[in-house]
Sequence to fold (125 residues):
Amino acid sequence: MRKSGSIRSSCPPKLLVEIHLREDSRGRLSSFYANGHAGWEDDGRDVVCAAVSALLQSAWFGLTDVAHVEVTASRTKGSLELSWPESARDDVAARAIVETAARSVERIAQQFPKNVRVTRARNDG
Fold:
């Protein structure tokens, strides 16, 4: 159960982590973008946020250091964007890494639907 915490701003923050998974025209994951805060607990104590963050950052680490894929990435407080080249999308290790992360955050979204939203969209263009 979510514990209440003080909100120090007159405008409460958006309390939802949104994760957008993008697939290419062949249905292969090509990028993800995550933004927000789950709001399950105060900032710094939110295990839902921490789980999502750990999974997505692990995917980044796995792609670069295990599968040796050059990624395009951007991380700021509360957001993470990661994409990988088409040449890596058929690589077995890269696919396993990103699909595991995607399915894991989808599972978290099922368990915490008020705190995490995941969408998958295909780029058919």
Notes: Confidence is low (pLDDT under 50) at residues 1-12. The first strand starts at residue 16 and ends at 23. Residues 16-116 form a domain with the Alpha-Beta Plaits fold (CATH 3.30.70.1490).
